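To fix ideas, we now present one chain and its tokenised fold:
***
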Amino acid sequence: MSIPTPPVNGQVIGLAHYASRAALETVLARVGSTFNQSVALRAVSDQGGTLERGRLVGRLTGALKIEESVAEETVEEMTALKLLAETDAELVSLTEHGRKVFEEIRTGGNEIAARLYADIPAEDLATAGRVLTLLTERANAVLAGA
């Protein structure tokens, strides 16, 4: 007996998110990092290792839907942990320690992703990506109008 495939809805998407995030949390615990910190590390790394502090805070609030004060706290924690260094009043940069931690997170995350997405046809992944991107855009529009 096969289990029927449920239609895509918030619950299905949420369950997938929480299950995959829980898997990533095992990597984060191993390296002593938090989810918010991992998102910040990626954001700075994606910009070549240096980013305006305000843009980083904006990226965290926008991506994670957290308050600005929580994003600021995350950046402060990361500076205290020597993951980021403030190069001047407006810029933050990855430290060597921050690069190492991010590389461990990326490697562990990639290993998890390889297991999760194994054997799913590329066209199915592309369709899911398009649908989820559209849903994100629409949800952000709803939040902007709230």
The first strand starts at residue 50 and ends at 52. Residues 110 and 136 are 22 Å apart (CA to CA). The beta strands are 50-52, 84-86, 91-94. The radius of gyration is 17 Å.
